[in-house]
Amino acid sequence: MAALPARPRVHAASPDPLVLPLLQAAGAGRDLWNGGREPPGAQCVREAVGEQRQGRLSTAGSPLLQALGAPALPGPSAMFLLLPFDSLVANLLGISLTVLFTLLLVFIIVPAVFGVSFGIRRLYMKTLLKIFQWATLRIERGAKEKNHPVYKPYANGIIAKEPMSLEEEIKEIRRSGSSKALDAPEFELSDIFYFCRKGIETIMDDEVTKRFSAEELESWNLLSRTNYNFQYISLRLTVLWGLGVLIRYCFLLPLRIALAFTGVSLLVIGTSVVGLLPNGRCKEFLSKHVHLMCYRICVRALTAIITYHDRENRPRNGGICVANHTSPIDVIILASDGYYAMVGQIHGGLMGVIQRAVVKACPHVWFERSEVKDRHLVAKRLTEHVQDKSKLPILIFPEGTCINNTSVMMFKKGSFEIGATVYPVAIKYDPQFGDAFWNSSKYGMVTYLLRMMTSWAIVCSVWYLPPMTRQPDEDAVQFANRVKSAIARQGGLVDLLWDGGLKREKVKDAFKEEQQKLYSKMISGNHEDRSRS
Amino acid sequence: MGSSHSMSEEIQELAEKTGFTSEQIEHLHRRFKQLSGDQPTIRKEHFDNIPDLEFNPIRSKIVHAFFDKRNLRQESDGLADEINFEDFLTIMSYFRPIEMNMDEERLDHFRKEKLKFLFHMYDSDHDGKITLQEYRNVVEELLSGNPHLEKESARSIADGAMMEAASICVGQMEPDQVYEGITFEDFLKMWQGIDIETKMHVRFLNMETIAQCH
Questions:
Q1: pTM of this prediction?
Q2: Which residues pair with A422 in a beta bridge?
Q3: What is the complex's ipTM, to 2 decimals?
Q4: Inter-chain CB proximity B55 and A189 less than 8 Å
Q5: Where does the record place the EF-hand domain (chain B) (predicted)?
Q6: What does the alpha-carbon distance between residue A332 and residue A350 come to, in Å, rounded to a whole number?
Q7: pLDDT band of A215, cuts 50, 70, 90
Q8: Which contiguous run of DSSP H or E holds residue A195?
């Protein structure tokens, strides 16, 4: 141990030798620097290194004190500068990675495991909303200054549609057209007006194709993918947008991918391990918690901020949970709050691996591709599952395809024929933070997931509606429509009779003929009356 | 922004030609792009993507009307293969509502244009006359799809209506006089004094914009 010299005249705080390069860079070491002479720090670094090599560690600062008292040695100051710069970069990298992983662990994974929330995501959401409001105001103001038109999107269409039915309209046309008696209507040239106009109206704007493209926003959420009308307005806004891109792609995206990876691998490993246990209460308990934990991690991987309403209506064993479908994320959202048995087709690839692992721990209902076509087989297996009261509630999306979350389309009647209690659930996403709709004709699964992970957040509300059963006087289709209306009403979505399958196929001929039958009934019925008389 | 300036000039031109306002043109342009799948022209197949249109019994006649060169105000005759946005707007302009401040002459011209559109729909062989066969075609199409209605009844309905049209246009006919077909003048005569054009328009919802483009 080097002997402590007499207390030298120091007119600055004596820093740790490792920190000294940083301080020097910040200019704090200016006081210690004597022009031309080697800075005292250099020698103290060397000395500290030398002390360590000899196996003796001096107290922090004593080599410095020594150095201050020692005569200055001329030396290559340039070499000195290079050495700590490398370690500077390495230090920064190391520090940031450590910070990232600590954040990951402490704030995200541990709460997910235990099912608690710190409220960080809600704070994040509030901050974002304020920024979006500012951005929209700025755009509107900028547009006014430059005289650019800024159009608000119209969810209700651009045409005023007559609310009259076919019969009334044709009567009106005929009334205005002819002076003949109205009690003997027959076909007239003017009837064509009605159909012509209706045709042109639907060409201009129709209810169905609107539902299959993403919902348009009224304010801009700093994502260029939702930027339809907004052009370059101001430097500040562009800088803000650029900052947003940086944050989303360089900070949020790696964090989310790490979380997703953790969640999925934990799910596969956890369920495989639990599957090895013998059947019993212990296995069920563990399985439930492994599932819930992993889904919660996945929820955080998407930064999904979910509000659950009416949780007392959550589905129970032996029931079927029915929800409207907007994206594959719906499954994660519902499954992170309840323990369900999934129904679906076995896929290949990563999805298949997850499916096969998960079914070891808990009896999900997976169908082979060939079995899916056989409706009776599907119905039989589902009925068996539902009748066993010890089995979990089934999660089904009866629309059959992803809709853009502004409406609810026709529910396929298969799941309503089984005869179990139906627990409807309404899911409504807030598109301001990130549009969750999966347009499967436009984006593949991987692209879609990347888009989700580079949005600000996924914000949604989930309502658990009270359970419904089929009444004795209604058939499966009526029951399905009743459930659908309830879901649409709760979620504030438009209730449509159209089939979601229209996204890919054409209208069934049965529907086409309906209107034609109605019209021709009007004419031929009266015509027959006339010919009889 | 250079591109937006020239676009607004284009919009002005289109507005003058077709009579739509610039907001309506922008909305229709979005609809056009949606129908055509972001391509510059529309073909007949693109209309297949509209499910509501399947309901309509005279669907093929309506789609046909879009490609009919007579409606597109081109000098030639026959059918076009594809139409661009200007043609799309031209067809849509037949369904513009009547404005309050139109004078008599313009009103008359407007009405004639609308009725001419309808006439072209009936007259499928472009010979300027609606013959009995063409009339029958339209009636059959309108009544098609109803299995309870026999072809004979459809035919007799068409015949009866044609007789009436003849009586309006030509008056009392000699027994051996043949009524060739309804010409456009006869067609106009049939609708004289009747406000059909109020039923042949599509009204746009009132669209507010924040700033106007001049």
A1: 0.53
A2: A320, A468
A3: 0.78
A4: no
A5: 110-145
A6: 16
A7: low
A8: helix A191-204
